Amino acid sequence: MDEAIEYDAYDAVAVHVLALRADGTPLGTGRLLTGEAAVAKTGADASVGSLGRLAVSRRARGLGIGAALVRAIEDAARARGLAAVDLHAQTQALGFYERLGYAAYGPKFLDADMPHRAMRRAL
User: Fold this and answer.
1) DSSP codes joined into one string, 20-36
2) Domain 3-122: top CATH class
3) CA distance 41 to 50
4) Alpha-carbon dihedral sign for residues 29, 34, 39, 45
5) What are the residues facing 44 on neighbouring strands?
6) The dihedral of CA 101, 106, 72, 19: what is its sign?
7) Could you tell me the CA-to-CA distances from 53 to 4, 6, 22, 66 in Å, in that order?
8) How far apart are CA 53 and CA 22, in angstroms?
9) Count of alpha carbons within 13 angstroms of residue 62, beta-carbon side
10) DSSP state at residue 6
């Protein structure tokens, strides 16, 4: 995938989370958009945050890091008074998010030439 599409104007205003090994090696990351940035990304109202850019290094998958990152993003959303969190999940990751309480809605769509579904979890 082209690394350039992973960066956007929202990075400067996002809440970023990072999972690190004890030696400081990054294991995973994600971000939360709020306010106007979240509205622009999800089309929802300002009471809904947008979880995005969730990634866990291959060597760290299966260790619960992805779930911990999602929970940290949800905690940040709660701290900001948000009522829900939306995300756009690759269809291969639907089960992961469903296990964390997210429900898919709307049709499949392509993002970066990969099939996705919108998902939401009330907080």
Assistant:
1) E-TTS-EEEEEEEE-HH
2) alpha beta
3) 7
4) positive
5) none
6) positive
7) 13, 8, 23, 11
8) 23
9) 2
10) G
pLDDT mean for each 10 residues of the chain (123 residues)? 68 95 96 93 90 95 96 98 97 97 97 94 98
pLDDT score recorded for residue 71: 98
- CA 40 → CA 23, 44, 57, distances in Å? 37, 8, 28
Distance CA 54, CA 1 (A): 15
Structure tokens given for 29: 């990351």
Paired with 109 in beta bridges are 116
How far apart are the C-alpha atoms of 111 and 98, rounded to whole Å? 20
For residues 88 and 111, the answer to whether their CB atoms sit within 8 Å is: yes
pTM reported for the whole predicted model:
0.92
The single-letter code of the amino acid at 37 is A
Residue 10's pLDDT is 86
Which residue is associated with the tokens 């959303």?
A: 77
